[in-house]
Design a protein that fits this description.
Radius of gyration: 18 Å
Shape: globular
Low-confidence stretches: 1-13, 112-116
Distance between the termini: 18 Å
Helix content: 40-55%
Number of helices: 12
Largest sheet: 3 strands, antiparallel
Strand content: 15-25%
CATH class of the largest domain: Alpha Beta
CATH architecture of the largest domain: 3-Layer(bab) Sandwich
Amino acid sequence: MPKQSNARAGREARRVVFENGLLSLHLHEQRLGPVLVEISRKSAVPVFSAPEVDQRVVSLSLYNVPLEQGLRQLFADCDAFFYFSQGAADRGALRTVWAYAPGGGRDLLPVPPETWASTQDFERKLTSTVPAERIQAIETIVARDGPASLDTVMRLLIDPTPEVRLRALDVALSASVPLSDDVVVTLTSDASPEVRALALEAIVSGTEPGSARVAETEPLLRRMLGDPDEQIRARAREVLDAYRSQ
């Protein structure tokens, strides 16, 4: 892989590559939530992170490291749990990761499935007046139902609390919940800059430079050049420049 100049590396706000089980990335003062969404999507390993972890700003460069090693570096000062498969066909394979703020996992213990709350219990929490309970509910339901949780995700994508909308989009993307392009594009106009940024990343990650989809994505990027958030404007400009250089 050719080495990049420091100037070019500085312009590339985020770069995540996952090939042959190895992770490479370049992060420069980036919020961790969208990065984890991208890693999860490319590796097909669900990464569930607490909102406090998602808001962390990280600068880190890695090249061709095992996924577990890369995630451990990203979560170096967080509480993290790694689940590995013990099946005969894929013994030792990393299957799921959970990350919490420092100390946030201290009182968490594995429990047998029969002691878990039912899905109905968590569905009731979707209407809780406490945002943290709604976040917990969508995390659990998406983890259990995967793509089948689309209807539930759609409910929380219009939640009045920005943190809930952000987490609903985050876990939906991580679990490959089949959100339509129209839904994701609509979220690029959300009142929350964090939601807009994550929606933009979802669209960009699905648009390879030089592909036919670029023609559909460019008008959105040009619109986002006028976004109120400076980082979103910069990201839209960066991607447009990358498309035009192809």
